[in-house]
Design a protein that fits this description.
This protein is mainly α. It has one domain. Helix content is 71%, strand content 0%. It is built from two helices and no strands. The relative contact order is 0.12.
Amino acid sequence: MPEPGEREARRSLTRLRHAVEKCVRELETSARALRAAGDADFPADAFHAAAAHLRAVSEFVNEQAERLEQKILEAGGIAPERLRRPGGERAR
């Protein structure tokens, strides 16, 4: 059983992951709306850069979640490489 701090960290990372996913959706919606409005000087490069930043944050969150999971498993005496993920691949 994870410690309270570890549980809160997992919850926090999950909330952050959902917030980033929502930001990605909102960014895409905004881009479509601006293009549909006939924005002649639509800042496509700025939107691509913002999307790249969100991908970087998403990767960071995923890395931290994986690191925390490994820590929890190791504390429980389970080697992460012994676990199988959906699809049959082994955990890292």
